[in-house]
From TrEMBL:
Main location: cytoplasm
Localization annotation: Cytoplasm
Composition bias, Low complexity: 20-32
Segments of this protein annotated with the region Disordered: 18-54
Residues in RecX second three-helical domain copies: 104-142
Species: Acinetobacter terrestris
Domain RecX third three-helical residue range list: 150-193
Protein's recorded name: Regulatory protein RecX
Database matches in Pfam families: RecX_HTH2 (PF02631), RecX_HTH3 (PF21981)
InterPro entries, per the entry: RecX_HTH_2nd, RecX_HTH_3rd, Regulatory_RecX, WH-like_DNA-bd_sf
PANTHER family tied to this protein: REGULATORY PROTEIN RECX FAMILY PROTEIN (PTHR33602:SF1)
Amino acid sequence: MSNPKFPKMLDYAAIKQQFDDSSPESPSESFSAPIESNALHFEDDPQPKPKGLTGSRLRSYAFAVLTRREYSKADLIEKLALYAMDRDEVLKLVDELARENYQSDQRVAEIMLSSQKRKGKGPNRIKLALKSKKIDASLIQEELKETDWNEQAYQLKVKKYGAKVEKEPKLKAKQIRFLMYRGFEIDAIIKAITRKEDEF
């Protein structure tokens, strides 16, 4: 038996309009397609960013950016230029931060070298990664020279294909292509794929 005190059907659209979509548990959301509304897109909107920064505000923002992670000089310039009033001011500020060692391409290069080596990348891929950040590879020239790339290439080859020395030309070619793609020099690659397990 229906209760005359309650309406037979609820007008969900009217309820939704009344509460201006503020309730995330609005009943209509369970039964209807999403309705285009600003309220439904708050979570998708990026956090408000500072705009038109100059002077101390721009400097403060630069420090805030650098406390989160290391930036190359080129990347920091582009990052700050997005929110600064004047690009020339950004260039002067970044030069100053670099002189005072708050920003350092040297540190970024060392971090990238360590990270790329952990990922099994050879010297050629590492130099390309540095170039993409507009960092001079000469900053870590000594570290590149001191790294045993023969050993790096061999360990990567063993991890991917095992310690067995392949005789089949197609399999050898496959290993060579893999190590070349990873950025190793051909000399290190040949040594890696021909090295026997008991050789040191």
